Amino acid sequence: MYNPKSMKAEEFIDHNEILESLAYAKSHKDDVYLIDKILQKARLRKGLNHREALVLLECEIKEKNEEIYALAEQIKKDFYGNRIVMFAPLYLSNYCVNGCVYCPYHSKNKHIARKKLTQEELKAEVIALQDMGHKRLAIEAGEDPVNNPIEYILECINTIYSIQHKNGAIRRVNVNIAATTVENYRKLQQAGIGTYILFQETYHKKSYEKLHPTGPKSDYAYHTEAMDRAMEGGIDDVGIGVLFGLELYRYEFAGLLMHAEHLEAVHGVGPHTISVPRICPADDIDPANFDNSISDDIFAKLVACIRIAVPYTGMIVSTRESKKTRERVLHLGVSQISGGSRTSVGGYVTPEPEDENSAQFDVSDNRSLDEVVQWLMSMEYIPSFCTACYREGRTGDRFMSLCKSGQIQNCCLPNALMTLKEYLQDYATPETRKLGEKLIDKELENIPNQNVRKIVVERLEKIAQGDRDFRF
After folding, report:
1. 8 A C-beta contact, residue 272 and residue 195
2. E strand or H helix at 273
3. Stretch 231-249: mean pLDDT, rounded?
4. Domain assignment present for 71
5. pLDDT, tens only, 356-388
6. Under a CB-based contact definition with an 8 Å cutoff, are residues 96 and 105 in contact?
7. What are the angstrom distances between the C-alpha of 209 and each of 202, 251, 337?
């Protein structure tokens, strides 16, 4: 029985409810009256439930789809403005005991180079990322209780936060590691992490069990209920996602939104972020072996409908996607992207030779961080390196209440401009700096509060003189 308040995975991600919702959406995909009613509700900026959102996803009426895309773009602007948060993944170890058939880290893969960073190697990686200009990292590791125990993860977090190099500092560490216990989540929270991220891969239980034949990750319920344990452990911000291509995309879309509804119903706050990766080539993995791949057009529609359904939630697209694809979905709802990424262990300091591949997946967008920053600014987006909300305690329900009221806008634009100024001063090429200074001058006029604008101007001058880390 479907129950979003249940703590059991098969009740808040109810298979029959998804099937019924899919059938309902298919039967109403040409119902203009219903579609208009759903769009009218969506324009209130308070979101949609999974069944309503599925109707929009299923809709094939050209004029209505244009309305869907336009609304998604407007909602994105209303809540996130033209800011795009920047981050980079940092792979600590690719040792893994699981048998996930879509991931090259699976335990039966004997020819991938297995690596684990020492603390000295980690320091070198972090300094390399700081020298690019990054302030926010997402650490990644395979599941291996011997090689990657929670103590190792905690030690790495402490090391990352401790490194000050020139004007560089990592101000927020997000964590993407396997499902664990309430006690371990409490340890991560006490270590000062930002968002805990865990992809479901697929919400379809039978497919999940087939795709995860061995290892701790094979337990569907334990994995699906991880976010509840994380929140019980005191972690306010959690990030969910699926790997599109493993199962039918409509099913996954429904599961994602039902998971968000569950978190809202039980904890009073939905996911801080939703990621939308698609399966892509990797060592020992051929995407052609998975017959549920989706086109760029479907991918764009998914992003737009997620943005409409969960207007307050950040959306992430990584360098799995090409420049062309990322540019398209930026307009439709994406608010965070990675730049200059390496998905190998130790890849920021020394690029790997082909015969020592340790990467989790092939990167499609290989541009440097500076190239990505310049590209964003050329489209009049503001690359933001801000981590202020996390460090000021604006997380969980506190962040969402500010976001829903619109008050967060009083902080976000000023903080984005000040962190962009830091990047321009410390890391940008001359061409990027010139473009960025023009953008900052223009965007200052969009700060509505005159007193705040005056303070920002003063702080920008101080940043130019060498001061760092101002925030509202």
Report:
1. yes
2. strand 273-275
3. 96
4. no
5. 777 777 788 999 999 999 999 999 999 999 998
6. yes
7. 10, 16, 30
Task: Name the residue among 381, 384, 251, 253 with its Cα closest to residue 329.
Answer: 381
Instruction: Calculate the average pLDDT of the chain.
Output: 94
Q: Are residues 170 and 286 in the same domain?
A: yes
Q: What is the pLDDT of residue 297?
A: 96
- Token pair 């000023």 is found at 414
Rounded CA separation 400/210 (Å): 36
Tokens representing 355 are 């015969």
Domain stop point among 335, 366, 397: 366
Nearest CA-CA partner of 133 in 394, 422, 364, 336: 422
Instruction: Give CA–CA dist 313/270, Å, rounded.
Output: 8
The CA distance from 324 to 304, in Å, is 16
Q: Are 347 and 88 in contact (CB under 8 A)?
A: no
Look at phi and psi of residue 8 and say left if phi exceeds 0, alpha if psi is from -120 to 50, else beta.
beta
CB 164 within 8 A of CB 203: no
Rg of the Cα atoms in the chain = 21
φ, ψ of residue 318 to 5 degrees: the values are -95, -175
Same domain, 393 and 359: no
The CB density around residue 403, as the number of other CB atoms within 10 Å, is 20
Quick check: 241 and 199 in contact, CB under 8 A? yes
Distance CA 236, CA 195 (A): 8
Query: Token pair 């308040």 is at which residue?
Result: 5
* Confidence label for 394 from pLDDT (cuts 50, 70 and 90): confident
β-partners of residue 201 are 242
- CA angle 311/57/261 to nearest 5° reads 45
Is 224 in the same domain as 295?
yes
Structure tokens at 263: 């978190």
Burial 366-392 (b: 16+ CB within 10 A, else e): ebebbbbbbbbbeeebbbbbbbbbbee
Domain end position, chosen among 366, 397, 413: 366
pLDDT of 274 strictly over 80: yes
Q: What is the C-alpha separation between 470 and 460, in angstroms, rounded?
A: 9
- Estimate the crossing angle of helix 150-162 against helix 119-132, to 10 degrees: 40
Q: How far apart are CA 223 and CA 340, in angstroms?
A: 30
